TrEMBL record, chain A:
One of its GO terms (molecular function) is calcium ion binding. GO terms for cellular component: sperm flagellum. This is Calaxin. The lineage of its organism: Eukaryota, Metazoa, Chordata, Craniata, Vertebrata. The keyword Metal-binding applies. SUPFAM superfamilies: EF-hand. The keyword Zinc does not apply. Residues 65-100, 101-136 form the EF-hand domain. PROSITE patterns: EF_HAND_1, EF_HAND_2. Keywords: Calcium, Metal-binding, Repeat. InterPro entries: EF-hand-dom_pair, EF_Hand_1_Ca_BS, EF_hand_dom, Recoverin. It comes from Equus asinus (Donkey). It comes from the Eukaryota.
UniProtKB/TrEMBL annotation, chain B:
GO terms for biological process: cilium movement; determination of left/right symmetry; heart development; outer dynein arm assembly; regulation of cilium beat frequency; ventricular system development. It comes from the Eukaryota. Its main location: cytoplasm. Pfam families: Arm. This is Outer dynein arm-docking complex subunit 2. Keywords: Cell projection, Coiled coil, Cytoplasm, Cytoskeleton, Repeat. It is found in: Cytoplasm, Cytoskeleton, Cilium axoneme; Cytoplasm, Cytoskeleton, Cilium basal body.
Length: 200, 1045
């Protein structure tokens, strides 16, 4: 990709993205292309990270392990549902993750949990998300009982709290490595120039 | 030959490969018992002896056919008994080496024949017939002991009334009895060998519990543990008792005896000192003989128990044995067995009752964890009692501690006993262990609250969940009312504390935050605090203080603030470097490293500082921590924080300062850091608590004169005076009056207070106030009354009467201050008249008998102006019966202050000739002379004055000389204190009237010293010195004259 094109891309993306400045966007674009690797650009072929590649990144870079969640995070990134994350989706998704406001994160979180996308989180969906969260104890008669109980607690809490904060709790925990631990590392890694880094 | 046998043999010979019995003493004993049973069977139960077994007992015998004699048809290899059954079969049939026996009668005879080899025969029989009962009675009867069909059989028996079945039943019962007998027998054997262990004790108690309850048929009214908490090793005794081998304590109420409090230890069971109702504590001391187990113990103690026990014995031991045999058996089944067994031979009503018991016991089984909650004692009551006794302890110690503290500083106003504890812990050494007993596990409510189960479930999720589940569980747990003791203890009892503390060690910030939020709440509970420290929570929390996340720091600091309420915890914080880290939190400017994004958990820097100060406040109650805070540079930071306007930050900051200001080094720093200014500023705050702590800090700091001036210069006296008008908040009032007291030590401050009309208000506070306020109020009045105007004000406001009334109190600090104030008032003749009228002098005089030296001294000082200013002082003094003797005897005290004050009093008493005569009779001269060799200038001065006044009577002058008082007095002239010089010169002048004294003085070089004194600007001193020289000189002249004439 030539320099001019890159320049242009950077500018458009910077305009659309409120959480990153130009330098940061450039860094992220560079990172994106490094991750995608050498794919010659052809007309009609979308360049991007497919599901597996993206999941790999989530796993390696952010240490996420839960299949379910990784899958949902991918879906969250892949706005146009074409099966791969392109540059603009990449930038947008990361801006949300790294710099998103509470509300944005909440919205995202909701999407992650709303498996069927009907705008509601049902008990079943919640159950799916929490399925692997408890250590299975062989002694127990019903291994799912604990999880069902957790779902009850969660939903009860959501109703009590007007949903708001609790989503974030769960969201952040699910993606906690993503949000809290690796973020700083990630940012310093990506945005290497310290001079440009001050305003964050 | 019963069930027991097979089983007994099994356990003793456990692990054997072949099916033979081991030759152990126990097995032998059992076999002997069986032999005895069988041998005596024919005599005891002749009818049953003829009963023919369903199947013959069959074994290999070593008996020779030739051994059989009459009653048997003997061939070379076979022996048949002549006794036959209905079908004509012999009851004993021997075909070498096999032998078959089919009745008890034959068995008995066989054993008789066997003679010396009885034992071997019995053993062989038992080994070969693994299930004798089945063979003897038929399979029905064997299984009936194991399952529920027994009831049916019983029914059958009743209906059919078959004589054979009747006999079978009887034999069954007999075998049962044997069984039981064997069990007991073997138990005796075993228990001789084995020391009690928690498991057996627990079994015993559980079993007894099942047979306890109301009504005639139970063995006990109730039996229960005193503590429901079971340690992992199965013991319930507190750890420090476990080292003595004690396992648990049990409260037993037999039907016919009072409740017994019993200690089960590995040595055995014995009665302990009991758990008194008003104490709540167990007296661990042994009060009786040691019994080998609980049942034996109870049999000894309660006749009813032993009676009922023998009825129940059967079921009890049967079950005991069962438990031992099949520890893994389903509890339910076990219960069923008990139930059905209990039915045997008893009527329907018992059956029903047992059914209930059965249900109950099942419940107990199911509710196993709930045992923690079953009450034996009212928990609340117990706590308060414990607290009471502690307070007593502290107060006791405080009294002991007092003499070592100077009178002025000793009485620091404290809010509560807890604070008293803190004072003590400051002054006592750090290595001492905390007095508070570490654990009380039992709680009040008999039923478990639903929260308990919910919390238990949540803790389970905490243990076995990933981060998401953990966070959900934490959030949900936080929704409980964590301020409630039930929830706090529930978390602990289900093992939640361990998990929560463990979570702090993870990398998961969310989990740490959640865990800390819960810990912060529950650590308000003193027991939980201890548990947290015991579980090593503090080092981890201290580590978290380094975290880059402010929220975490804050929560950790707040939790530390809660936990560090007792000494061991404070020490732990310090030894893990927590103080430095906490001090660092105060420096809020540096902590801006946290990334901006975690908006949800964003905390303000001020909050961090607040939490840090809060934790320091808690920590600053230990002396070593104060030092550590100072060394970590905490004072400048605290001073910095004082400038903020956030009340919630100011309170802990001022609190810390107030706590620390008890140290001299701090007071210097506080002055240097210009902290007083801000303290004064905050006195004007709206917040009562803040005002209180500021006043308290000023109270502590105003020991120092410069500080007192600073308070005045910054205008602190006016707010103090105005705060006096609000008397509702007693704690604040105490702090404010304390500050006023200390400030009024400076004269300028007193003038200010007079301007602000504070003295009138103080007089108003002399009545209806708690002691801590009174001490300060009276102290302040004592200082104010040093000035004439104020004395007049106090008199005009009617302050004398309440002051004199306070002389009858018992609070030593108060008495010291009251006597001082009364003494100050007595300087004014008009006030003195009032004091005299109120009989104040008598009250003061009686305080000379107070055991506390500070009170004695203060009272003696106060007496001086009283004697000076009273009309007919001499007469008044004489009117106190034994008063003069009392005063003279006080000269034997070893407290310098007391001595000085008594000397001063004697000076005044001696002004009256008659009184002087009396005290001379009481031996005042030798006592004063003995004191002469002192170094204390204060004592020297008053002593010299006393001597000079006592010279006025009879041959006292000579007597002083005889008691070697003169030479030391001369040395006083070398002192630097003019007051001492004056008093000494006067004394020497009086003494020099006697020739011998003059010689002594001259020998000790008094003349030269006195010559210098003549040049003093002090007229009295001049006069006395000159008079003394003239006496000496006159003597010299007279001697010379005598020589030459």
């Amino acid at each position: 990709m030539n320099r001019k094109k890159l320049q242009k891309l950077t500018e458009t993306l910077t305009k659309n993205c409120k959480h990153f400045d130009k330098f940061e966007v450039k860094c992220l674009i560079n990172l994106f292309y490094t991750l995608v690797g050498d794919v010659t650009e052809r007309q009609g072929v979308v360049i991007g990270l497919d599901r597996n590649a993206f999941r790999n990144i989530l796993h390696v870079t952010f240490g996420m392990t839960d299949d379910m969640i990784m899958d949902r995070v991918f879906r969250g990134f892949d706005k146009d549902n074409d099966g791969c994350v392109n540059v603009s989706e990449w930038i947008y998704g990361l801006s949300l993750f790294l710099r998103g406001t509470l509300e944005e994160k909440m919205k995202y979180c909701f999407e992650v949990f709303d498996l069927n996308g009907d705008g509601f989180i049902s008990k079943e969906e919640m159950f799916h998300m929490l399925k692997n969260s408890l250590l299975k104890q062989p002694s127990e008669e019903d291994p799912d009982e604990g999880i069902k109980d957790l779902v009850e607690i969660t939903l009860k809490k959501m109703v009590n709290m007007g949903n708001l904060e609790f989503y974030i709790e769960i969201f952040c925990t699910n993606l906690s490595t993503f949000i809290l631990q690796s973020r700083m590392e990630f940012e310093t890694q990506v945005f290497k120039d310290p001079n440009e880094f001050n305003d964050m | 030959m019963g069930v027991a046998l097979t089983r007994l043999a099994q356990w003793t010979a456990a692990g054997r490969g072949t099916r033979t019995l081991e030759t152990t003493p126990l097995n032998e004993a059992i076999l002997k018992e069986i032999i005895m049973f069988v041998e005596s069977f024919i005599y005891k139960y002749p009818q049953e002896a003829h009963y023919v077994f369903v199947d013959p007992l069959q074994w290999k015998t070593n008996l020779n056919p030739s051994a059989f004699e009459s009653g048997y048809s003997v061939s070379e290899t076979t022996v048949k008994s002549e006794e036959v059954d209905k079908n004509g079969k012999p009851l004993l049939f021997l075909s070498v080496p096999q032998i078959k026996v089919r009745s008890f009668g034959q068995l008995a005879r066989l054993l008789l024949i066997a003679k010396n080899t009885k034992l071997q025969e019995a053993q062989a029989c038992v080994e070969a017939n693994r299930n004798p009962i089945a063979k003897i009675l038929g399979l029905d009867y064997d299984t009936l002991t194991e399952d529920s069909s027994k009831v049916n059989i019983l029914d059958k028996i009743i209906k059919e009334d078959d004589p054979e079945i009747d006999m079978k039943m009887k034999i069954a019962m007999l075998l049962k009895q044997l069984d039981l007998h064997l069990l007991n027998h073997s138990l005796k054997h075993i228990s001789l060998e084995i020391r009690l262990n928690p498991g057996t004790v627990k079994n015993d108690i559980e079993l007894l519990k099942r047979f306890s309850g109301k009504g005639e048929h139970t063995v006990l009214e109730y039996i229960d543990y005193t503590s429901d908490y079971e340690f992992s090793n199965g013991c319930r005794a507190p750890p420090w008792r476990q080292v003595h081998g004690e396992i648990c304590y049990v409260l037993v109420k037999p039907h016919d005896v009072e409740t017994l409090c019993v200690t089960c230890s590995s040595e055995g069971v014995f009665l302990n000192g009991g758990k008194t109702d008003d104490e709540g504590e167990i007296n661990y001391e042994r009060k009786g003989a040691v019994y080998k187990d609980l049942v034996t113990f109870l049999k000894e103690k309660s006749a009813k128990f032993s009676e009922n026990m023998s009825k129940q014995e059967f079921a009890f031991s049967e079950e005991q044995q069962k438990e031992k045999d099949q520890p893994n058996e389903e509890p339910k089944k076990e219960e069923a067995i008990t139930f059905h067994k209990a039915v045997t031979g008893s009527d329907r009503s018992t059956q029903e009752k047992n059914q209930i018991n059965f249900g109950k016991t099942r419940m107990t089984k199911r509710l196993e964890p709930s045992l923690n909650w079953k009450a034996t004692v009212d928990f609340k009551e117990r706590r308060s009692l414990v607290r009471d006794s502690q307070e007593e302890k502290h107060i006791g110690r405080l009294e002991k501690a007092r003499p070592s503290v100077s009178p002025g500083r000793a009485q620091i106003v404290r809010k509560s006993a807890e604070k008293i504890e803190e004072i003590i812990s400051e002054s006592s050494s750090e290595s001492e262990e905390d007095e508070e007993p570490p654990d009380h596990r039992q709680e009040a409510n008999a039923d478990l609250p639903s929260e308990y189960w919910q919390i238990q479930k949540l803790v389970k999720y905490l243990k076995g969940g990933n981060q998401t589940a953990t966070v959900i569980a934490l959030c949900s747990m936080k929704d409980f009312n964590l301020a409630h003791e039930t929830c706090q203890l529930a978390i602990r009892d289900v093992g939640g504390l361990e998990v929560l503390i463990n979570l702090l060690d993870t990398d998961e910030v969310k989990c740490k935050i959640g865990s800390l939020k819960i810990l912060k709440e529950i650590s308000h509970n003193p027991q939980i605090r201890r548990n947290i420290v015991d579980l090593g929570g503090l080092p981890i929390m201290v580590k978290i203080l380094d975290s880059p996340y402010k929220t975490l720091k804050c929560l950790a600091a707040e939790t530390i603030a809660n936990v560090a309420k007792f000494r061991r915890a404070r020490r732990a914080v310090r030894s893990h470097g927590g103080i430095t880290k906490l001090v660092a939190l105060l420096d809020c400017g540096q902590n801006s490293t946290e990334p901006a994004q975690s908006s949800l958990y964003e905390t303000r820097d001020m909050e961090v500082a607040r939490c840090g100060a809060l934790a320091l406040w808690s920590c600053s109650k230990s002396y070593a921590n104060k030092e550590a805070i100072r060394k970590a540079g905490g004072i400048p930071l605290l001073a910095q924080l004082l400038k903020t306007s956030h009340e919630n930050v100011l309170i802990p900051v001022v609190g810390t300062l107030q706590e620390c200001a008890s140290e001299e080094s701090y007071r210097a720093s506080i002055k240097a850091e210009r902290i007083i200014e801000n303290l004064v500023k905050n006195l004007n705050s709206e917040n009562e608590q803040l005002q209180e702590h500021c006043a308290m800090a000023i109270y502590q700091c105003a020991e120092d004169e410069e500080t007192r001036d600073l308070v005045r210069l910054h205008g602190g006296l006016k707010p103090l005076a105005s705060l006096l008008n609000n008397t509702d908040n007693k704690e604040r009032l105490a702090a404010v009056t304390g500050a006023i007291w200390k400030c009024s030590i400076s004269k300028e401050n007193v003038t200010k207070f007079r301007e602000y009309k504070a003295i009138e208000t103080l007089v108003g506070l002399l009545t209806d106030q708690p002691e801590e306020v009174l001490v300060n109020v009276v102290g302040a009045l004592g200082e104010c009354c040093q000035e004439y105007e104020n004395r007049v004000i106090v008199r005009k406001c009617g302050g004398i009467q309440p002051l004199v009334n306070l002389l009858v109190g018992i609070n030593q600090a108060l008495l010291v201050n009251v006597t001082k104030a009364v003494g100050a008032c007595a300087l004014e003749p008009e006030s003195m008249t009032i004091i005299d009228r109120l009989d104040g002098v008598r009250l003061l005089w009686s305080l000379l008998k107070n055991p506390h030296p500070d009170v004695k001294a203060s009272a003696a000082w106060a007496l001086c102006p009283c004697i000076q200013n009273a009309k007919d002082a001499g007469e008044m003094v004489r009117s106190f019966v034994g008063g003069l003797e009392l005063v003279v005897n006080l000269l034997k005290s070893d407290n310098k202050e007391v001595l000085a004050s008594v000397c001063a009093a004697i000076t005044n008493i001696a002004k009256d000739q008659e009184n002087l005569a009396v005290i001379t009779d009481h031996g005042v001269v030798p006592l004063l002379s003995k004191l002469a060799n002192t170094n204390s200038d204060k004592l020297r001065r008053h002593l010299a004055e006393a001597i000079s006044h006592c010279c006025m009577w009879g041959r006292n002058r000579v007597a002083f000389g005889e008691h070697n008082a003169v030479a030391p007095l001369v040395r006083y002239l070398k002192s630097n204190d003019t007051n001492v010089h004056r008093a000494t010169a006067q004394a020497l002048y009086q003494l020099s009237e006697d020739a011998d004294n003059c010689i002594t003085m001259h020998e000790n070089g008094a003349v030269k010293l006195l010559l210098d004194m003549v040049g003093s600007p002090d007229q009295e001193l001049q006069e006395a010195a000159a008079g003394c020289i003239s006496n000496i000189r006159r003597l010299a002249l007279a001697t010379e004259k005598a020589r030459y004439t």
